[in-house]
Design brief:
alpha+beta, four-stranded antiparallel sheet, 2 helices, about 40% strand, globular
Length: about 80
């Protein structure tokens, strides 16, 4: 299962968050973007339960992350 995690960061914490998020198990790609969100992280997990845990316990817990929104990808 693949998810796109949109992250809003606190001002001045961008570099620290980027360094930490790259080391989270399950994070496959991290991109800085412009607009309402600051980072888009592509994550992979075997199922929705693991994906949810990855976002809540590992990504939202990073100091400097102020908000997330996760888009879950499904095969059509």
């Amino acid at each position: 299962m693949v998810g796109l995690v949109l992250l809003r960061l606190e001002a001045g914490k961008e570099e620290a968050v980027l360094a930490k998020i790259k080391n989270v198990k399950g994070v496959k790609k991290v991109q800085a973007v412009f607009g309402r969100w600051d980072i888009v992280a592509t994550v992979e997990a075997p199922d929705l339960k693991v994906l949810t845990s990855l976002v809540i316990k590992n990504i939202r817990a990073i100091d400097g992350v102020s908000a997330t929104e996760t888009l879950v990808s499904t095969v059509l």
